[in-house]
Amino acid sequence: MLAWYIFTSMGFYPLASSSTYLIDSSVFDRITIRRNNGQCILTIIVHNNSIEIIYVERVLLNGKTL
């Protein structure tokens, strides 16, 4: 349950029994996922984050719109 909560709080979580990830609004303004060696593998940055804004307007991956 803890992994599910962490993923959903980030707004990025795996779809069960699939290799697909869903994107949703995050409770954090910024979160970085790192490997044990300190290498950054994912940073999520949310602009204008608030409880009233519940939809994702756009998603960028390496500067390109998904």
From TrEMBL:
Listed InterPro entries: Glyco_hydro_92
Taxonomic lineage from the root: Eukaryota, Metazoa, Spiralia, Gnathifera, Rotifera
Q: Which Pfam families match?
A: Glyco_hydro_92 (PF07971)
Q: What is this protein called?
A: Glycosyl hydrolase family 92 domain-containing protein
| Residues annotated as domain Glycosyl hydrolase family | 1-65
What is the organism field in this record?
Rotaria sordida
